[in-house]
Protein 1
Amino acid sequence: MLAKRIIPCLDVTAGRVVKGVSFVELRDAGDPVEIARRYDEQGADELTFLDITASSDDRGILFRIIEQVAEQVFIPLTVGGGVRQVEDVRNLLNAGADKVSINTSAVLNPQLVADAAGRYGSQCIVVAIDAKQDVPGRWEVFTHGGRKATGLDAVAWAKNMQALGAGEILLTSMDRDGTRSGFDLALTRAVTDALEIPVIASGGVGNLQHLVDGVKLGGADAVLAASIFHYGEYTVQQAKQYMAQQGIEVRL
Amino acid sequence: MVDIAVVDYGMGNLRSVQQALRTVAPDASIVVTDDPDEIAKAARVVFPGQGAMPDCMRELDARGLRAAVLQAARSKPFLGICIGLQMLFEHSAEGDIPGLGILHGKVVRFAGNLRDAQGNKLKVPHMGWNQVHHKTNPLLNPLPEGEGAMAASTVGGSQKVDEHPLWQGIPQDARFYFVHSYYVQPQDDALVQATSCYPQPFVCAVARDNLFAVQFHPEKSQSAGLALLRNFVDWNPV
């Protein structure tokens, strides 16, 4: 049967991998190409690169990073951050990305998701949603790296994106991101139950049981984590072995 | 002389296919091309495809590549990938359109509301790493009575005797990366080279003579995928 995916996430700025807490306080974690190669060797199922500053200066650096990774690593690569038009999608795919993740621009211009999926296929369009609990059972979508409230309900928004052609949802809990206290399982469950397309749970992983909970309790199709892998706490292989011991189907 | 031509009809990202081929065949000349002459001259042809099959068919014809692909599929080592597998069949439910009709059979969509054995919802697209069962697995491909008894005695305990050369060195049930909502249903079971389960078995690899085609993405399936591509590069069908 299909394996649940483990996806290390590399937040990239100025050519380096960094990691923050609740979207601030960035800490250097190393060279993206080297880190990507290490995770591939450890058995990562995919890799996600997020260009967290997405300034025009950094854009060229990001393209070179993706090109270098794509020459050496033969697993799916998702790249996001600063994708504003269909041309950005094309450029990232040409650089070696297999999927492109769209976040703020999907809110500002939902037609971009439809156009990009229509042109390149749903399989390569990931819509990233940053959500924050409003009241229990309701989560609001934020944009601009978590700085701007939109008033949109995360579950309704995710369904809307599915209808426009998104192939997958990358769902980040802003309340949990960087806290190491585990995924927002209620949020994950609410979104995954509402959708036909796969959902990647993100935000809050601090130990391997959190990954298991994301799949078993949250119903996630894939789990994304950054800091537990970056600082050598756990390898991807250890994460997979632990999940397998807990009865989750993984690629070992 | 071009060793390997990757057919480019504007659908999807061919760079990863080219990159993976380069890795397994560093000395080969590999071109990504929309030129029918180059496809005709190449020793081997890879036919990838991403996105929706109606768009793929339209773009293939818009570039005047149909004849070159049909010719290659009949005459030289030919590898179809993903939509490049689906397009070989006669009809697709995606857009209700005809395919190239090189192989008898059709392309259908995964049913809605799929559940696994524990009752968990299975998403469509089928996306991620799934196990690929080669045809020789007797559990999945029970031989008809009589024939089975004969095969068993010939095989003498080894299951690998009849395995297609493209599976060489790839363990049974190795995982490959999939992303698709439709799958092929060949009319002739003899074409089937592998199945995968979601949750029911579906065909994920077919072969006939010089042609081999897979639903998964070998170029994104790490070592198992590279092994299959290496086998394709070394393959000399009679």
Protein 2
Amino acid sequence: MHFRKTLAVGAVAALLSMPGLASAETLTIGYGSEPSAIDPHYHNLTPNNSMAAHIFSRLIEQDEKQRLTPGLATEWKAVDELTWEFKLRKGVKFHDGSDFNADDVMATVKRAPNVPNSPSSFALYLKGKTFEKVDDYTIRIKTEAPYPLMAVDISTIHIISNEAVDASTEDFNSGKATAGTGPYKFVEWVPGDRVVLERYDGYHGDKPEWDKVVYKPIKSGPSRVAALLAGDVDFIDNVPTIDISRLEKDPNLSLSQGISNRVIYLHMDQFREDSPDITAKDGSKIKNPLLDARVRKALSMAISRDLIVERVMEGVAIPAGQLLPEGFFGVSPNLKPEAYDPEGAKKLLAEAGYPDGFKMKVHGPNDRYINDAKILEAVAQMFSRIGIETSVETMTKSVFFKRASRGGPDNSPEFSFVLVGWGSGTGEASSPLKSLLATYNKDKGMGSSNRGRHSNPEFDKVLDEALATVDDDKRAMLLAKATDIGIGQDQGIIPLHYQVNTWAAKKGLKYNARTDERTYAMGIVTSK
Amino acid sequence: MSVFIIRRLMQSVIVVAVMSLIVFVGVNVVGDPVDMLINPEADQAEIERVIRDLGLDRPLHEQYLYFVGNAFEGDLGKSFVFGESALKLIVQRMPATFELAFSALLMAIVIGVPFGVYAGMRPNAISSRTIMAGSILGFSLPTFWVGLMMIMVFAVMLGWLPSTGRGDTVEIFGIEVSFLTADGLSHLLMPALNLALLKISLVIRLARAGTREAMHQDYVKFARAKGLSETRVILVHVLKNIMIPVVTVLGLEFGSLIAFSVVTETVFAWPGMGKLLIDALHNLDRPIIVAYLMMIVLVFVIINLIVDIFYSVLDPRVRLKDAGQ
């Protein structure tokens, strides 16, 4: 707690702390979510991963646009189709003074997939890979089949010291084993109250700007904004959209915005003849109209994405035509957001044999994505305009996702039509294509979040080929082709918009907004 | 009295047992924690591994029996999110919540009783009516809204108090407390007042009603006739008699202060167990929810017992014995 004494000589000083930086060197961040552990291998989820990135480095880092950049590995390449070689950085020291070398990497890959009680493990990124130490600064990874996503997978694993190979999650949380090579050293974690970090002067990359960083978890959006306005924190993430226009006008603040890798989209039942939430207008049973690609196309045309972005999202979103925004690896150049055309939609519906529309209930979460329930209500109204009588049911995420994924008979998706979102953790197109549009196949691990059960052998074939193509240009082309089939041709999902995230800071600070929605103290810089 | 206490404690055990069943079944039929815990990129095999690890693949009665078995050994399960003992996590956060609740209780008495007695003595004065009108506001305004307004006014506009968090803490007997540092105290003031608001209103009303009634009692008239000063009449004779309902109600309300400090803790980002509960509810961290509710049941049972004992101290006519005998 000594950090506080420097900035608050006494209570009076704390009470009267004026807007402006609390201290030139201390950065206090109010953030909306809290990690469940400091252990970098315990819980593979955004809050944990973004905290870990301060303390630990990775062989390959992801920059603010999720492009891969050298980290503890200076270069990497595929020696042949089945072997990758990583050259490690020399002269790097851990926070405890020990040297970094290949042994630490070997220790990390031994520990990372096997942390006890892990609620979501890193085994996902390490399976099927055999690590081999060639010399102190060279690592080879062998796979059984060609694996182009090697670098992306490796960029998720935080490297620990080989002395911590047997450390428990508790040892990391207490700081006992928490020596990384990252830009900040771990000082303390008081769950629910704060995480304190300190600059690591021996960091191998760009020198961190702040002497000390204090992360305070403030879950409630209005309270987070108030804490910034009151000057108790210097920076907040996840600014509620409703407050953005007000904060923009505040001369003491500055906002940073950036497009995210998260697309908000609609999933439609494409596997049941008799879909539970769809009936004819008189309530009698009909064959599931969503099986017809023309109906799905008509629904997409009925939605005015511009209106949703402008009114529901307060302008803070970008209309989407596919799974990732322009500029990401593997996106299709052919797909633009579907133009709003209610007349065309009606015509298409009539052509498909539904001139009078039908009745449908749509489902979505109400506390997961920015304005999720409101978006769904707007979509339902737009559907009603083309003659599809639509009712909306939203629920809390903890109930929604179970029902949407496994609520029906034999663990099938329960609903006919849902609103969901997908953030591409890998920063390229294979992640959503594999999870959302590939044929659901438990053994292959494909289509794990395919809640509409879109299935097209042609699509699967192209995607499989892409996932086995090590050559980047060729793979990008194949991924784009798969997207063209899954969305352009099949209308397997209806993309709505890409989320735009907003961070707010005191005047004089700005944030290099990240597409992966993470909040890094390293990205918060003084603007001149 | 000891027989009474033992009997009451035994009844409590039954209450806790029944409660555990209701709570366990209740939280286990809602939603699925796996979807909250797991990285969306995980494949089906990983999802199944987590379900297996958390024991969610077993039938509900088996899960319950397993839980009860462990509970007898003092283990209320491991948090799904933190992977640590749920009980330990709750106990870690307990001092912060108790500090908040005690401060609120203190405020309720220190502010509520004098205002209530004053209003009871001069029921028709404008000042008394203002107090009563104020207490209606205290009752009817939603806590989270008042909390946010307080932050807006005192932290954002006036800049007198910090908006969120707990501030500096000092360790006493191994427990972190913030009321002993100036910085901690300034952090404590707003959330405690926010939490106390409803209780202050309640105490004002109770004290006023009690005072009005007591003023007409024979013993007050007699005390006055004896020539005792007004101060002594109020402080000794009236106050002692109106304290019985106040103590009862506050005793019961203390339980609810602890159990439902959730809203205040969320608004002020106070790192107590209420905030832990809210997060647990969002993530469906079932072991924490179950352990928390079981603890709250225990707290209520113990408080009731203490209130009963207090009674017999305040009113010598009350003897603690079992109604059934």
